[in-house]
């Protein structure tokens, strides 16, 4: 024993020396040197350390703790090649798991690392499990026969009780093995809810034994869109897949062992085309129907006037409930057009018989009727924020996706809310402006924006006494353009790592620069898990801004250690011989700027490339009457006069979007001769992006008295419309541009009844 103790001490000394030699000398804020993500509530370092070797044991008394010990061993084996013995007792050279029953913070834990003992005291089995996840993060990321754990004392608990990741399997189906990996990664980041989106227009993905046609018919479609929606092309290949109930049970059990709740979603009353294909009588027209092959929203929904629809859905719920022990059942409720209901005699009779105001109230009736049934089975419903329309079901919880407004309204009424706005947590958006990005639905959502998300609205928007109803947040991954597990991982990570810190860590402890330092180490843990994460965050990034004198400049940065940034201004490809970037680069004329990171003397990753087209408005001061919608907000009105034309796939953070009128005023500085006015607008009606009713330009010399000088209501092209209006004899200091919002989307179109989007970009004055 004495010799073994001596050898252990020697190994600790050697390991600590190696760690010291590998230190880069960077100073990290107190408590973050160990690259823990999400950052714990309290971390104190001590002078001790603990060496894990083959003689170390894990002490676990309960069945839950033994299961958590087995999961720790599985990770340890990847680093060391061996597993530790699990024992019922021990207090030397041991990792001791102790689970209590503290319901005030049931997911909390305390972790202490001393020379001869590691203890994890969980307030519940989940707390102990999360303590183990932190212990794993204290381990080195390099393989070795013995692993040194630094001395720490950690007290930790999550900020929110609901911490979720969503996966749409309706558009594209993913095998059970990958679903389990998705859950593994979710749990690794202390997330506790897997939202499984199981049904949609393009496919029904779960076995319902009473209705085998759901498997035989609704799980299949004849073909799939190829490329982007706007290409309107199809691959001509049959597609299908569904999970058997035995597979579902296996997944739910697997998740439970990792303290993850699986939240099933069965869409109603909309997104039901696949189900209607199997059972045409449940639609308003009686069909025939065909499982959706294009993306988007379909007019055909469940008939709200047909009692057999409710009996069918109740039967489905009866088979869903035994499979999923979750407190909630997600019933969708989103994007349900009313056009079929408006013309359906049964639906109109229902409106009359139930004394309902309109079709929105009919949707509320539909949701509330299903809620009563689900409540009668001891469960609660959760749905997208459209379930607010027509009156919210009494015990419903809301997922607010169309911004935060729906969540605020629901919380003010005393309903629990999960915040999941497209502006910050829709992982199907582009995460980079690079040319080599795979096709995505649109938008731009880098890691930095995810990390900036604050789920609890400001006190000016939500009564602080109601803030308790914000129970958490979730990221969503819709898979129209995501066909493979590798692509799923690429879209989710590392953005999900940022969200993990948002929903776990106290906001006052968050710091993005420090998060990036910890992320550099954490990505090596994802490497161990063989995760195909996106690497944009460490490539070159560029920001175009005005300096303190009002001049335009490009600011470049990279988080890649040991890198050098070079650039060119003449559109040529940057190389090792190009100008080294040291300070922001002034942009004074039209041209193409290109910058890249050099790693080991070679370009690393995508370039930052930006073409500038100057006009008289470029770089001038611009003010907006109303800020853009948070979902598509470049962050400053300067994007409208920075000489950069937004791209068609609107993933470049240049477009400003509104669900109302747009009005901007440009201060030219001095009285200026003007011969042309311009504004770019985007038109993709199938994506809810509509042209304005008209665009009007005004001029003024004092900013008070305005004169109309040009207008148009012609926007013929799909995609970008560059409006250019010639004028004669105009001279002014101030220019105002006004674009009249189209209004709600008309019946028969994608998204009928919803507010359309107005996308605007570069203001041109020549």
Provide the fold topology:
Layout: H1 2-22, E1 42-52, E2 57-60, H2 63-80, E3 85-87, E4 94-99, E5 109-113, E6 117-122, H3 125-138, E7 147-156, E8 162-168, H4 176-188, E9 193-197, E10 199-200, E11 203-204, H5 213-218, E12 220-221, E13 225-226, E14 233-234, E15 239-240, H6 245-256, E16 261-268, H7 273-278, H8 307-320, E17 328-332, H9 339-343, H10 345-353, H11 359-376, E18 380-384, E19 397-400, H12 405-412, E20 417-419, H13 422-425, H14 447-451, E21 470-475, H15 485-492, H16 495-504, H17 512-528, E22 541-546, E23 552-557, E24 564-568, E25 579-580, E26 585-586, E27 591-599, E28 602-612, E29 621-624, E30 656-658, E31 662-683, E32 694-700, E33 707-712, E34 719-740, E35 758-765
Parallel strand pairs: 2-3, 2-4, 4-6, 8-9, 8-21, 9-16, 16-17, 17-18, 18-19, 19-20, 20-21
Antiparallel strand pairs: 1-7, 5-6, 5-7, 10-11, 12-15, 13-14, 22-23, 23-26, 24-25, 24-27, 27-28, 29-31, 30-35, 31-34, 31-35, 32-33, 32-34
Helix pairs in contact: 2-3, 4-6, 8-11
Radius of gyration: 29 Å
CATH-scheme architecture of the largest domain: Alpha-Beta Barrel
Proportion of β residues?
Answer: 25-35%
Strand order of the largest sheet: 8-9-16-17-18-19-20-21
- Compute the number of structural domains: 4
In CATH, what is the homologous superfamily of the largest domain?
Glycosidases
Largest sheet: 8 strands, parallel, barrel
Mean pLDDT: 92
Morphology call: globular
- Distance between the ends: 86 Å
Which range best describes the helical content: under 10%, 10-25%, 25-40%, 40-55%, 55-70% or over 70%? 10-25%
């Amino acid at each position: 024993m004495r010799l073994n103790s001596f050898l252990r001490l020697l190994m600790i000394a050697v390991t600590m020396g190696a760690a010291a030699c590998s230190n880069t000398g960077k100073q990290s804020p107190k408590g973050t040197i160990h690259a823990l993500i999400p950052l714990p509530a309290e971390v104190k370092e001590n002078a001790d350390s603990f060496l894990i070797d083959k003689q170390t044991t894990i002490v676990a008394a309960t069945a839950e703790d033994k299961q958590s010990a087995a999961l720790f061993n599985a990770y340890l084996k990847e680093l060391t090649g061996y597993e530790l013995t699990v024992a019922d007792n021990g207090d030397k050279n041991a990792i001791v798991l102790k689970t209590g029953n503290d319901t005030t913070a049931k997911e909390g834990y305390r972790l202490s690392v001393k020379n001869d003992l590691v203890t994890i005291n969980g307030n519940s089995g989940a707390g102990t499990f999360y303590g183990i996840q932190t212990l794993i993060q204290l381990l080195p990321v390099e393989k070795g026969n013995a692993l040194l754990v630094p001395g720490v004392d950690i007290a930790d608990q999550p900020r929110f009780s609901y911490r979720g990741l969503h996966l749409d399997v309706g558009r594209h189906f993913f095998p059970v093995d990958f679903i389990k990996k998705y859950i593994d990664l979710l749990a690794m980041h202390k997330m506790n809810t897997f939202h499984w989106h199981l049904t949609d227009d393009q496919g029904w993905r779960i076995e319902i034994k009473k209705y085998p046609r759901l498997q035989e018919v609704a799980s299949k479609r004849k073909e799939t869109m190829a490329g982007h929606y706007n290409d309107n092309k199809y691959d001509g290949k049959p597609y299908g897949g569904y999970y058997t109930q035995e597979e579902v049970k296996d997944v739910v059990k697997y998740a439970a062992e990792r303290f993850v709740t699986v939240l099933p979603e069965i869409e109603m009353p909309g997104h039901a085309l696949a189900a209607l294909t199997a059972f045409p009588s449940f639609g308003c027209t009686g069909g025939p129907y065909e499982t959706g092959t294009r993306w988007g929203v379909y007019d055909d929904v469940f008939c709200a006037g047909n009692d057999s629809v409710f009996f069918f859905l109740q039967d489905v719920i009866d088979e869903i409930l035994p499979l999923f022990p979750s407190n909630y059942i997600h019933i969708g409720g989103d994007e349900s057009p009313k056009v079929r209901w408006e013309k359906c005699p049964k639906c109109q009779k229902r409106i009359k018989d139930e004394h309902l105001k309109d079709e929105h109230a009919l949707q509320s009736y539909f949701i509330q009727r299903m809620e009563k049934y689900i409540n009668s089975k001891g469960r609660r419903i959760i749905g997208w924020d459209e379930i607010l329309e027509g009156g919210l079901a009494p015990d419903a919880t809301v997922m607010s996706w169309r911004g935060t407004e729906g969540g605020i309204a629901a919380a003010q009424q005393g309903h629990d809310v999960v915040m999941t706005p497209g502006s910050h947590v829709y992982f199907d958006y582009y995460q980079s402006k690079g040319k080599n990005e795979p096709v995505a639905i649109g938008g731009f959502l880098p890691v930095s924006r995810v990390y900036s998300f604050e789920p609890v609205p400001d006190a000016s928007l939500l009564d602080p006494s109601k803030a308790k109803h914000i129970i958490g947040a979730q990221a969503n991954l819709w898979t129209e353009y995501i066909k493979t597990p590798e692509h799923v991982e690429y879209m989710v990570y590392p953005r999900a790592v940022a969200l993990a810190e948002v929903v776990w860590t106290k906001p006052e402890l968050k710091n993005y620069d420090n998060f990036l330092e910890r992320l550099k180490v954490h990505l090596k843990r994802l490497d161990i898990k063989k995760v195909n994460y996106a690497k944009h965050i460490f490539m070159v990034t560029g920001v175009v801004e005005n300096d303190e004198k009002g001049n335009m400049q490009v600011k470049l940065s990279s988080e890649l250690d040991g890198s050098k940034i070079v650039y060119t201004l003449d559109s040529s490809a940057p190389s090792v011989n190009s100008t080294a970037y040291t300070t922001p680069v002034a942009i004074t004329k039209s041209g193409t700027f290109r910058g890249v990171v050099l790693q080991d003397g070679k370009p690393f990753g995508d370039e930052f490339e930006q073409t500038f087209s100057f006009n008289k408005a470029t770089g001038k001061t611009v003010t907006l009457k109303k800020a853009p919608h948070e979902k598509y907000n470049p962050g400053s009105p300067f994007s409208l006069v920075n000489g950069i034309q937004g791209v068609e796939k609107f993933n470049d953070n240049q477009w400003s979007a509104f669900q109302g009128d747009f009005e901007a005023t440009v201060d030219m500085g001095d009285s200026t001769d003007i011969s042309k006015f311009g504004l770019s607008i985007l038109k993709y009606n199938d994506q809810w992006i509509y042209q304005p009713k008209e665009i009007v330009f005004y001029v003024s010399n004092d900013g008070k008295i305005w004169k109309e000088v040009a207008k148009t209501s012609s926007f013929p092209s799909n995609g970008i419309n560059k409006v250019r209006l010639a004028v004669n004899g105009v001279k002014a200091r101030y220019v105002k541009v006004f674009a009249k919002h189209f209004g709600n989307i008309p019946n028969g179109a994608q998204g009928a009844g919803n507010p359309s989007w107005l996308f605007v970009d570069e203001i041109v004055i020549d």
